[in-house]
Amino acid sequence: MRLAEMIKKMGPSEVELNIPAKNCYRMVVLGSSKVGKTAIVSRFLNGRFEDQYTPTIEDFHRKLYSIRGEVYQLDILDTSGNHPFPAMRRLSILTGDVFILVFSLDNRDSFEEVQRLKQQILETKSCLKNKTKEDTEVPLVVCGNKGDRDFYREVESREIEQLLGQDSKRCPYFEISAKKNSSLDEMFRALFTMAKLPNEMSPDLHRKVSVQYCDLLQKKTLKGKKLLKDPSGGGTGEAYGIVAPFARRPSVHSDLMYIREKAIRGGQAKEKERCVIS
C-alpha cells in the first residue's frame, strides 16, 4: 500500500517514516483566549484566515518537510487560552521545542498573561537542563497580534520594551496581523533561526504540496537518496512541506516518556524527579 493511502486510512501518527529523532520538533503556541493563536497556526499551515471564532480546547497538527534531502517533522500544538488543566499546560511546555507567545494589542490582560507565560516557560525548562531560568536558552518569540487595529490599542510599545528589556535578542518581539498576514513570515524565520532549524520551514520558503507526495518522503527515508525532481516538475526539489491529515496528539504517557528520555539524553537523569507534572 502506498504511503499516501496509509496516511489517509490510518492517520500519520500510525505511519512510521523513520525520521531521526534529531529532526522531530514541537512548536507550542500559547496565549489568552481570542488573541489569534489559531489564526496564526492556520496561516502557517495553509495560508488562510478564518473570520469566525471557535474556542480552542487543544488542537494538534503535524507538518512534514523535505529540505535539501533531509526529512523533518514539526508538530504544532495550539493550546487553550483558558488553561483549565494546569498540569497539561506544564506538559505542553516540557515537550515543546519552540514557542510562540501571543497577546492582542487591544487587550491588556492578554499582555499580562504573556508575561506570566514567559516566566513559566523559563522556569519549567530550567528543570530539564539543571540551570537557572536566567541561563536557560529557549527558542521563543512574543507576538502582538491584531496590528491592523491601529485605531484602538491598550498595549503601547514602551510597555513591550519594558517586558523584553535585555531579553530582546533571546526573545524577539513582532507586531503582526494574522488577518492581513503581515510580519508572520519574518516571525517564523526568526524563530526557526533561534532554534537552529532550517529557515525553509517558514511558510514562504518552501513549496507546499499535497499528501500524495508523502511517497517521496518514504523513498527518502527508506533509501537515503535525495529527491531529484520537484513534485511540480519544475526541477530540483530543494524544500517542500506537507500538512499531514488526521494528525493525533501523542498520549500523555508518550509525552512523559519523551520528557524522561530528553532529560537522560541531556545528562540530567538524576534531575528528572524535579520535572513533576502537577
UniProtKB/TrEMBL annotation:
Topological relation to the membrane, as annotated: Lipid-anchor
Main location: membrane
Gene Ontology CC, one term: plasma membrane
Residue ranges that the Swiss-Prot or TrEMBL entry lists as coiled coil: none
InterPro entries: P-loop_NTPase, Small_GTP-bd, Small_GTPase, Small_GTPase_RasD
Protein localization: Cell membrane
Listed CDD domains: Rhes_like
GO process annotations (BP): signal transduction
GO MF entry, a single one: GTP binding
UniProt keyword terms in alphabetical order: Cell membrane, GTP-binding, Lipoprotein, Membrane, Methylation, Nucleotide-binding, Prenylation
NCBIfam families tied to this protein: small_GTP
Assigned protein family: Belongs to the small GTPase superfamily. RasD family.
Listed name of the protein: Ras related dexamethasone induced 1
Species for this entry: Pseudonaja textilis (Eastern brown snake)
